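Regression check, adenosine-5'-diphosphate case 529:
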Amino acid sequence: SGFDTGPETSGALDALRRVFGYDAFREGQAGIIDHVVAGGDALVLMPTGGGKSLCYQIPSLVRKGVGVVISPLIALMQDQVDALRALGVRAGFLNSTQDLDERRVVEAEFVAGEIDLLYLAPERLRVPATIDLLDRGSIALFAIDEAHCVSQWGHDFRPDYLMLSGLHERWPDVPRIALTATATEATRAEIASRLNLESARHFVASFDRPNIQYRIEPKSDPKRQLLHLLRTEHAGDAGIVYCLSRNSVEKHAAFLSDNGIEALPYHAGLDASVRAANQSRFLREDGLVIVATIAFGMGIDKPDVRFVAHLDLPKSVEGYYQETGRAGRDGLPSTAWLAYGLQDVVNLRKMIESGEGDLAHRRRMSLHLDAMLALCETVECRRVQLLNYFGQTAEPCGNCDTCLAPPETWDATVPAQKVLSTIVRLDRERNQKFGAGQVVDILLGKKNAKVIQHDHDSLSVFGIGTDLRDVEWRGVIRQMLAQGLMAVTGEYGVLVQTEASADVLRGQRKVMMRREPERAIAKAAKAAK
Ligand code: ADP
Ligand code: ZN
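Current build output:
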């Protein structure tokens, strides 16, 4: 290929063939490798599975000295080093899981130049002894993996990463390569500025994963929806099912197993040995399903994951992209499927509000969620939306759910006004705030216990919404939240007005919504009975 000329002269192609046993570089790799081998700094954006590792591994082999790789994935270091050693590459790692003796051995190898790659956990740099150690060896390059962790705007900030800015000051002649599989333009700019990589060359690969079919549907009866997907489209396939909570992981793993689909749980609450065993079975055996929290998957390299299913809404588009990106690394057709509902929005808002961090942090999390909701509710091509989010353009793909079955839209201005009127009445006339459930019951004119207790049947809005069913109202509320026409807040997930609410109430803003497929509505209605 046209990429071969440069690397040939640098010995990179030779290393690719001889050490890694591959014939040719993938798109983008050769240019990056050439640049770093020649001593240049690089900022690399490449989707999961694109082949980032070789971009620093090969330069580490070709250049004089040891390649120092900073990675937050401590749990994977042993595996990564073992995999390299199996190829005959001399590699070691330093992190907090080792005892002093183990560490001493690796340190001695580093100083003596007896290894080509040293994986280093970022928190090691907090220890002055580590800096002294690095001074005593010869460094080929610094590779900063998962570089988005330096960004406070991103979705996975790690304070230890801020120390990495010091590398350049201390070792100005050592080339640096920062790599990430997820970064919006704003995050990319922040990575560059925090790591002093403004004058580095930026290599931005396409984020498109054409073999992944993106599908997002309303959550009605999630267990049945999942089972249907696996039985009709992915029988016998390996896949990942993501859930938000440990409890939900356990529940769904058991549910799948009860229904004849071999599924293993994975979450941080499990014993480390169980976790390791389940992970290694998933990697080695065919056709296993792993049901996991997002703790699972970072750095996992299983090429034939045929589907990634989300039973809960991811907190950000970055997270969604990263998690779905674990499907189809072999390039074969794969499914990214997500079911989400009103409760997801309420839960995540609650988590953000009660979560750690200052106000600015919570606001950022909230913006991340907004972007995720916009992706869910879009009537445009999912792929176009997704790539736009990462600053890339695309044509409608013809392969996602919205391309295959373009959703109808409907004018939901009046229903939106009814919802907002109810909120306003409760607030102004009763000085009360309620969650979606009570608002829907008031609209439907249901005399539930709370309605009677609070005399809500005397509100003028009581029973004005019998033209829609319960599930349809929940869909309306969900889409209103996604569009920012109102907000959900507080411990009880109460609905409140936003700036946009007034425009809708005054009739100055038309509200268009995506029509929910009748099949999903009917199912949800049945499940609710
Ligand atoms: P990333 O870190 O970008 O997610 P990896 O570096 O783990 O991706 O690479 C993904 C997979 O692709 C790995 O199995 C890797 O060995 C393989 N790979 C990388 N580069 C090449 C290449 N030039 N030819 C063939 N396979 C490659
Ligand atoms: Zn599409």
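Comparison notes: Residues 22, 25-26, 29, 46, 48-54, 301 surround adenosine-5'-diphosphate (ligand 1) (CB under 6 Å). The mean pLDDT is 92. No diff flagged against the previous build.
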